[in-house]
């Protein structure tokens, strides 16, 4: 979905979002309150410039608008694969973005992520997955790594990974599988303008992803491992 169409559905009361070099920023009216909007578009590759732009926008909100909610719109192909970015330390820039979002959360800004098109690898991990809760549209694409690339890295045949993906959401792309794993809170469909204020009202700093993954059958050991670490006991694989 194009971000203009998405914004029209999310913010019928109006917005000031602008686009510059695949970077989105601005504000919008949601249920009578102002919400900061930060994000990416056009399947943006996350290089040092756009990572810094997002981080700067987050810090601007924290500094100038205490406790203003933040909506992160996600459409990214992941980390930009260029020698220049690697030499400049793109991992540090992306980590800085994640830390800025965490600072916002600790400063009592409610932070919501929304995958409206594509969300891949590090570009998603340091943005939408750093939010208090992340949501997705039904037609969105979410994956850590394509199965072809995963086969090259793991040396497991792609046909075998494709077979595993039928029953194991960890291997399979798509919002439904990330919903099963607890990676996203819910899939938004229908009236987006109603669902956003509801999500902001429910947002909190408690990370329930492992718990949701267990309840939904997508991650069967993560929550048990968390509980074992807290209690000091051992966990056996099912």
Task: Write up this protein.
It is a single chain. With 238 residues, this protein is α/β, with parallel strands linked by helices. It has a domain at 3-137 and 188-204: 2-enoyl-CoA Hydratase, Chain A, domain 1 (Alpha-Beta Complex), CATH 3.90.226. It contains eleven helices and nine strands. Strands 1, 2, 3, 4, 5, 6, 7, 8 and 9 form a nine-stranded mixed sheet that branches. The longest helix has 17 residues, at 48-64. The chain is globular and about 50 Å long.
Describe the secondary-structure layout.
Blueprint: H1 3-10, E1 18-20, E2 23-30, E3 33-40, E4 44-46, H2 48-64, E5 70-79, H3 83-88, H4 90-106, E6 111-120, H5 121-125, E7 133-136, E8 141-143, H6 147-154, H7 158-165, H8 175-181, E9 186-187, H9 192-202, H10 209-215, H11 222-231
Parallel strand pairs: 3-5, 4-5, 5-6, 6-7, 6-8, 7-9
Antiparallel strand pairs: 1-2, 2-3
**Helicity range of the residues?**
40-55%
Low-confidence runs of at least 5 consecutive residues: none
- What fraction of residues sit in β-strands? 15-25%
Structure class: alpha/beta
CATH superfamily membership of the domain at 3-137 and 188-204, which one? 2-enoyl-CoA Hydratase, Chain A, domain 1
Output the number of helix runs. Answer: 11
CATH topology of the domain at 3-137 and 188-204: 2-enoyl-CoA Hydratase, Chain A, domain 1
Q: Give the CATH level 1 class of the domain at 3-137 and 188-204.
A: Alpha Beta
Question: What's the N-to-C terminus distance?
Answer: 40 Å
> What is the number of E strands?
9
Mean pLDDT: 91
Question: How does CATH name the architecture of the domain at 3-137 and 188-204?
Answer: Alpha-Beta Complex
Radius of gyration: 18 Å
Shape: globular
Order of helical and strand elements: HEEEEHEHHEHEEHHHEHHH
Q: Biggest β-sheet, characterized?
A: 9 strands, mixed
